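This part of the workshop introduces the protein records we will be handling. A record pairs a protein's sequence with a compact description of its fold. Backbone structure tokens are a discrete shorthand for how the chain folds in space. The question running through the whole workshop is how a given chain folds. The record below serves as our worked example for the rest of this section.
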Amino acid sequence: MPAKVFSLQVTENDAMILEGTKHVRGRMKYRRFGRTEMLVSQFSLGCMQFIRGIPEETAISTIERAVASGVNHIETARGYGNSEERVGKALKRILKRVPREQLYVTTKIGPSTKVDDFKRNFEKSMDYLGLDYLDNLDFHGPGNLAVIRPAMRDDGCLGYVRRLMSEGVVRHFGFSTHGYPNGVLDLVNTNEFESINLHYYYFYQGLRDVVARAAELDMGVFIISPNNQGGRLQAPTSKLTSACAPLAPMNFNHMWLLNQPDVHTLSFGPATPGEIDANLVAQDYDGTGDQRELFDRVLDQVENAYRSRLGDDFCTVCNQCLPCPENINIPGVLNWRQMHKAFDMTDYAQGRYEKVGSGGAWILGVKGDRCTKCGDCNPRCPEHLDIPQLLWRAHQELETGLVSGPAWEHEGDLLKKDLKS
């Protein structure tokens, strides 16, 4: 039976609302970034894309155009190749006409066991950026407290950052993360960080409790790449486009995030000046009025499509199934499967699944075929899902290499430890 098609009737008023969103320059809204008290634009310019084969002048012009469009927060990292250098060259031009106090610059540096290594990286960053103070410095990428504990001592990287802050060289301090919810919560609960950069989107709501706890601690919340990491929404499938109509899928996701007062700024990464306007359609969205009414109708449509196409297999990404004894990122794997099943987001889902097991910080855990049916997760699932079977189906549907069968079929318990090692 073909999947039910949902289509939203576009009213004349909706058309007027949508037409109004095309003219975006000069209407950016700003939000208080937690206890940093920085008033940041709803959209922040992420500069990771400048490490690719983009001409330097194009990169600089893109940064200039973003600032001219109302963006006042620029985010980069020491690990982003020549990104800091290009941001610095753009700032040299921009600060001739924009007061320094009207711009906020964040860079990220990975914490190290050797504080001198961290210090050298910080000095390189400041040299490339050409700044005498940094608005916000982030630890880059920790997923849990245990991994970075050596850096959190007074004689470690944290102590060095505190000295920089006391000297006014660094104004604020946060961290970015790609970790599991419990590990990220441990970092948040240290209360050492004023802000957090994290993955949280309509199509992945697994860090909702982290966002709520960050709000309780008055932390700034920065959303990492809601377009690309949120489901490759800048190049949506036809089924997803239909479900989100008349909103573009990436604008639907932006609005979903901006409806939450605990979320403060969303990153976007245009490669050229011409890509900026399409990313800033929701720059003046405040979650009220006609635009909110339109969003709510689209949300109902998307939810209906999602639920109807998955039926009783729908995972709410509540994380009650974690931790998994086999280190399977159960909510992540099931979430990719349902994006594939409901909206044909197969390229995105398979691309993510392909990286599982690579050991990188972005894609955690191991693949679904490593499930041993240990019985640990099923009793904890409030939706009463048959998690082992769904993991196996996800593996069959998303694995692009050889599929040889689930672990529970070919690993004897006596050899389990040896096979895992």
